[in-house]
Amino acid sequence: MSKEKVVKKSNIDIKVGLNEEHVPESIQWRADDHPEVDGWQDAKGMMVSFFDKESRDTMRIDLWTTDLQIMEMDRMVFHTLRGLAESYAKATGNNELAGQMQQFALYFGEKTEVIKPSKEGD
Length: 122
Fold this sequence. Notes:
alpha+beta; two-stranded antiparallel ribbon
């Protein structure tokens, strides 16, 4: 456990607007320390994970609005996979496994046509 003291706190707020069936129609977020924008930002989807200190399990909140298109979900998952690989490499230094994760992200991106294939004939 870190012995460093908290010197600042920052909030990240999320608002989810639900329809009659409790399905998200709108997602908005804001962050105290957002470097470029002040105020609420619209989003069509979100994926948030928390690693629980006590249970040592991951709690996830994955939501998307009714107007999120499949191609947009493909793009969101592609960028999330790439980001996970980068975060994993930074946190663990395991560049070999992070590289394999990046390879899968590229494969996913090509198969979903988020990115162009790196080689012809794939």
